[in-house]
Specification:
The protein contains seven helices and nine strands. By secondary structure, it is α/β, with parallel strands linked by helices. The chain has a single domain (about 5-220), classed as 3-Layer(aba) Sandwich (Rossmann fold).
Amino acid sequence: MVSPVSLLLLFILLLPQNGDDYKEKRERMVKQAIAARGTSDRAVLKAMRTVERHLFVPPDQAAYAYEDNPLPIGSGQTISQPYMVAFMTEVIEPGPQMKVLEIGTGNGYQAAVLAEIVKQVYTIEIIPELGKAAAARLKNLGYANVEVKVGNGYHGWEAHAPFDAIVVTAAAETVPPPLIQQLKEGGRMVIPVGPENGTQTLLLLRKKKGKISTTKLMPVLFVPFTGGDKE
């Protein structure tokens, strides 16, 4: 029996597509919504031009994939707007030898963007349906340097720590201590922090000599971080 996840992935991958049309839309998105707003890292811009966002959204949202808006992906979750994905990627200063942890895989789009730049991505999703679908999608698209885990991201992924950078794509009320512990010396973490039903603040944390410095980046609105400190 074919699972619903497999059917969804097959449907997405077999959608009739005009490659040139999507490429033009992707280029316009990068130029108008990302580069024009200050993103200048060449590797980040290249990744945003490369990853096909329309393959990471439900079929009924594909027409809107290259607009600079978050989109629903099911299970009450969203895919972040392209500008936010690019911004959060740029602020961790990604490089080709880096090992990055992502909390909140969602549909796998942020992980794919990171995977275009860094050596290895470990990503955790608490909702089984989303995590399994993202793992299959990333594998089918050839992202061999991404490993997906279904579980509680609050605890990070100790087996692969420390990480050069951590990207959290859901809003926590406070920064989870295990993530700070798993951040490498000299590493960076970007995370939205704030109330579930209100404006949050995107923070950049840097670890130096075991101490954390925090910079407030911008007000944001993310889906809530679920799981908490429970096992």
